[in-house]
What does this fold into?
Amino acid sequence: MCGRFTLKSPERIKLDRLNAENVPLLFPRYNIAPSQTVLALADLGNGPELSPLTWGLIPSWSTDSKGFINARAETIETKRSFSESFQRRRCLIPADGFYEWKRTGKAKQPFYFQLNDESVFAFAGVWDRWIKDGASINSCAIITTRANELLYPIHDRMPVILHPALHNIWLDPRTESTELKELLAPFPTSEMKSHPVGSGVNRVENDGAELIVRVDHEVGTTPSLF
It folds into this structure.
């Protein structure tokens, strides 16, 4: 799964179809958590643009506001919560790192994952619009797939990271489902790196650069994802 990520260098966002002049002023974030607002390149009705979305997709037909933070690549085309969004409402979610936890007995050690050059990349995502009693919420989920060799010792799932050359294909409404599914593959291990970090990331109220500093010891705390 993907339960926390970073966008510590928002000024480095470079996505096709995005005019740099349209990138809003942003501040570094080191502990983005479910239910919080995230930035996504999505077509909400006026063409692809960076828009704030709630992390936790609420299907348009849902009777309550419960959201899904992740969508599995293997079932995204068939699961009712995501199938229509997969066909019609795909998005890119900028990030420059994410966290995952390794369980050792009752303890969980957080690890931080990023690209080798620490640049901004994009998660593959889907979004939906939920309307009830006059309230409207645009929300999203990050798509996950099986882990690559770097992540597998830590967790068996990882978020789908799309190479820049694939961004337009993912967003293009004309792309066929079979081609879209082929994009939802593990990111190459050789292009990523990771290191253990401290337990501070377990608390959503913490959001500073110290969260991504390498530590070399196990911690015995369990993260609260909400």
